[in-house]
Every structure is written in C-alpha cells, then in structure tokens.
Design goal:
The chain is an alpha/beta fold and 353 residues long. It is built from eleven helices and 15 strands. Strands 2-10-9-8-5-3-4 form a seven-stranded mixed beta sheet. A four-stranded antiparallel beta sheet has the order 11-12-15-14, with helices on one face. A hairpin with a 4-residue loop joins strand 6 and strand 7.
C-alpha cells in the first residue's frame, strides 16, 4: 500500500534491511552506556551536522519525541512564561501543554492564509521564549526562513524555539536563525516513530545553566552533561538511533533533498488546482508547505475519496483539528518517490474532475 499519511509516515524501504542488520549485529542488545553505543552516538551526531548543515557550535540531543521537547523547553528554559505564535492545531497544542507547566504563558493566533507579520508583532515584555511551528502539519502552512530571521533579529532578548517536526531532514533549515529546533523522526527522516531530536544554540545552553533546573529526568542541563560523553539521560531508543545512522549515511545533501521536495510540491499543487472537485486549503502560495499539502472539499466527497483511495491501496492523510472532516492531507517527504506521486495523480485524475 502507498501511504501519504503525514505522520507516522512512510519509512525508507531500506529500513527493512537495516532492521535485520541491527539484529544480526547485536545492536538491539547493547547497553546504552557501552563504548559501542557511545561510538554510534558520536558518529551519528557528526553525520547529522554534515547531512543537515547543523552548525558545529550547536548541541544535538536525542529524546523520545517532539512533544517531549515542549516539556523540556517549558521546564528547563522558562522561568515564568513563553509566548506562542500559531495558526493551526499543533502550535495551539504546544501552548495548551505549556500552560500546564507555566500557566502565565500566552500566545497570538494569525490567519492561516497570511504571513506572520513580524514588524507589527507585539510580544509581552516578560516572555522569555518565543515559540513557533515552522511547518504546521494540521493545515499545510509553513513559515519562511526570512520570517524566522526577522523574528530572531527583532527579539534579541528572547530565545526563539522552532517546532520543525514536518520539515527537519526535508527542508534546508538555517539553524543559526533560531536558538532551539526540534522534530520527531517519523516524518521527513523516514524512520519509525519513537525518537526525537533537539538542537540547541550556545545561547540556549547558557540559559539552561543559568536556570539550573535539574528536577526532571529530561532536564536540559542533565542532557547537556550526559551528551558531553555522547550519552543520554535515559535508556534511549537504540534501534531508532541505529536506523537513523544507517539512513543518514546513504542520504543526499539536504540542499538536494530540499530542491527536489519543493519542485515536486509545486508540480502537485499545480495539478490539484486543475481539479474542480477539490480546492487547496491554503490559497496563498507564499505560505504553502512543501512537505504537507492540505486539500479541501465537501465532507461527503472527502470521506468517499479516502475510502476509494484505500480500495486502490492508497492511504491519504485525514484532516486535522478544525479541518478534520473537510480536508485530506498529502505528505511530501523524502522517502516518497516520484513514481508514487504519479500513481496518486493517476488515481485522482481517473476518479475526480
């Protein structure tokens, strides 16, 4: 079956062989404090810097998920409050979760078809971190890198935290334009769910050391201290760490992957605009995501479409949040092939106008 679900999403087909190799090589049984695991982690960190262009002075940590990163940021980097900018369900969920830890946190919602207006943005003076979702998976929007840079330059006293779950390892992110980046691996990394990546600037670690929060198993200071020796604070998902290393080893440069995904997204957007049974949820091309494409239609038509697709061995992504019933979503991740998109186009062209 072809799956275009935007997460957990398609894994690289090579993962099947890597799973067998992991078993045969004894990876599934190695202690996470062993020299062998330390060597694996050290090699993976170097590979991530090379393949994703992560700056040498930024720190990389392995956690369980992007959701855990919400918790780490609130616990270890926020004394009183953070400020959240969002236009969709996942950005809003981030704020809702953080409020349980730091109740004074607040946020601003903007329209999904508009660009984030940084020059006119009003952020409360006592906010310590500004939080954004670079690629909003729920509605298929994204924030451009220049917008993130403008945010970083305008609010120099605050840390800038970026949820990049649907773009890290797919888009050529400019990590120096923000302080904190994080993602889960079940999207653009093309891996099974169960591992998250947290990338922090030197300024972020300085803040964590100032606050000195060490009351949790995943306190950032603890992660920092453990990773000095390429270890984790808990027993990690050793299998996913190994799979990530194997996948990254064979991957093209992120610039090449970015260009391919952007071109394929543009082609598919153009194809969808020719269909009359559906409309693009995002009408402003400037804010359309290159990795998650949201398509709108009548509820009955959308429901029938997803059922028809399954009968043709194609899984489409459900809508999410406010758009749960009247949209479907298409993942455009690196593990997908052009041939799979051709098959999807043929299905839509044959069955819909």
């Amino acid at each position: 079956m072809l799956t275009f679900y935007p997460g957990p999403a398609k894994v690289y087909p090579e993962v099947r062989d890597y799973l067998t190799q992991a078993y045969d090589e004894g990876i599934l049984s190695i202690p996470h404090r062993s020299d062998r695991f330390v060597h694996l982690t050290k090699s993976l960190v170097a590979l991530l810097r090379k393949k994703l262009n992560i700056p040498q002075d930024y720190y990389i940590y392995f956690v369980s998920s992007a959701t855990e990163c919400w918790e780490i940021i609130a616990q270890s980097l926020t004394r009183h409050k953070s400020y959240h900018l969002y236009n969709g369900a996942f950005g809003e969920k981030w704020l809702d979760y953080v409020k349980k830890i730091k109740p004074k946190s607040a946020g601003t919602k903007w329209d999904l078809n508009e660009e984030l207006n940084v020059p006119d943005l009003v952020v409360e003076d006592d906010a310590e971190i500004i939080c954004i979702t670079q690629n909003e998976t729920s509605n298929g929007t994204q924030i451009k890198e220049n917008t993130i840079l403008n945010l970083f330059n305008r609010f120099r006293d605050q840390l800038i935290a970026v949820d990049a779950t649907s773009s890290m390892a797919g888009m050529a992110l400019k990590y120096i334009k923000a302080d904190i980046w994080f993602a889960s691996v079940q999207k653009c990394f093309g891996l099974p769910a169960g591992l998250g990546i947290l990338v922090c600037s030197p300024r972020t670690i300085f803040r964590a050391k100032e606050i000195k929060e060490k009351g949790h198993y995943n306190s950032l200071v603890t992660l920092y201290e453990k990773m000095l020796n390429y270890q984790t604070s808990i027993t990690p998902n050793v299998l996913d760490v190994y799979l990530m290393y194997k996948v990254m080893e064979e991957r093209e440069a992120i610039k090449t992957i970015d260009q391919h995904l952007v071109k394929r997204a543009q082609d598919f957007y153009q194809f969808l605009e020719e269909l009359t049974d559906f409309q693009l949820l995002i009408t402003n091309p400037e804010v359309r995501s290159a990795t998650v494409i949201a398509v709108e239609g009548k509820e009955k038509v959308i429901d029938e479409l997803k059922k028809n697709a399954l009968r043709s061995d194609i899984m489409l992504g459900n809508g999410y949040g406010a758009w749960a019933k009247n949209t479907f979503r298409i993942a455009n991740f690196p593990a997908h092939t052009d041939e799979e998109f051709d098959t999807l186009k043929h299905f839509l062209r044959t069955n819909y106008q």
